[in-house]
């Protein structure tokens, strides 16, 4: 393994950490409706639990309402029950074949709680990135110990990994700020 391999590996893993963080942020509910909110809701489909998106079309009816159209008629009550029992605090209403899921407006207190959730998720992402930095630096130290690289190369590698880490952490901070602004917007 060379220094460029170490840097490339760290860069790829940090990019994956940011993607995972973005997915985590997408689950945080804002005042507006978006179909991704129902991604973690599982429904019983012939004995196995599957995400709603695999048994129904999930669309936006308007800015504050999600529409769920089951592919099989018998699934509507099960989907409605799964959404109601999820920890999202939603109250779906069936209208013929369509299940309407209105998004209740968020209270100020709930918005503050959600910003704390966003900040905690951001801190978790930063910890993951710092762990990747540590792993990359340990790999470089191992190469130095095995006399495959010089001390200068090891130092340069650590500096490059630190710059990459700083950039990724700044990106995470920007994502946190944007999501907090989105959550606090009425």
TrEMBL record:
Which source organism?
A: Aquabacterium lacunae
* A Pfam family this chain is assigned to: RRF
Q: Where in the cell is it found?
A: Cytoplasm
On whether Cytoplasm is a keyword of this UniProt record, the answer is yes
Give the PANTHER family listed for this entry. Answer: MITOCHONDRIAL RIBOSOME RECYCLING FACTOR PSEUDO 1 (PTHR20982:SF3), RIBOSOME RECYCLING FACTOR (PTHR20982)
Protein name, per record: Ribosome-recycling factor
Q: Does the keyword rRNA processing apply?
A: no
Q: Which Gene3D superfamilies match?
A: 3.30.1360.40, Ribosome-recycling factor
Q: What does this protein do?
A: Responsible for the release of ribosomes from messenger RNA at the termination of protein biosynthesis. May increase the efficiency of translation by recycling ribosomes from one round of translation to another.
UniProt KW keywords: Coiled coil, Cytoplasm, Protein biosynthesis
Q: Which GO terms describe its cellular component?
A: cytosol
Boundaries of every Ribosome recycling factor domain copy: 21-184
């Amino acid at each position: 393994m060379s220094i460029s391999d170490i840097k490339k590996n760290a860069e790829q893993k940090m990019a994956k950490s940011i993607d995972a963080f973005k997915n985590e942020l997408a689950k945080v509910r804002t005042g507006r409706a978006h179909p991704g909110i129902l991604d973690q809701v599982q429904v019983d489909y012939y004995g196995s639990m599957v995400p709603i998106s695999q048994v129904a079309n999930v669309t936006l009816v308007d800015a504050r309402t999600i529409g769920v159209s089951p592919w099989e008629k018998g699934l509507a009550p099960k989907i409605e029950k799964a959404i109601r029992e999820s920890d999202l605090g939603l109250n779906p209403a069936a209208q013929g074949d369509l299940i309407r899921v209105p998004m209740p407006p968020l209270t100020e207190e709930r918005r503050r709680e959600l910003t704390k959730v966003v900040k905690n998720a951001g801190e978790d992402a930063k910890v993951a990135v710092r762990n990747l930095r540590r792993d990359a630096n340990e790999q470089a130290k191992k190469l130095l110990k095995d006399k495959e690289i010089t001390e200068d190369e090891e130092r340069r590698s650590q500096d490059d990994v630190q710059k990459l880490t700083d950039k990724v952490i700044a990106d995470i901070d920007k994502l946190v700020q944007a999501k907090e602004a989105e959550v606090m917007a009425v």
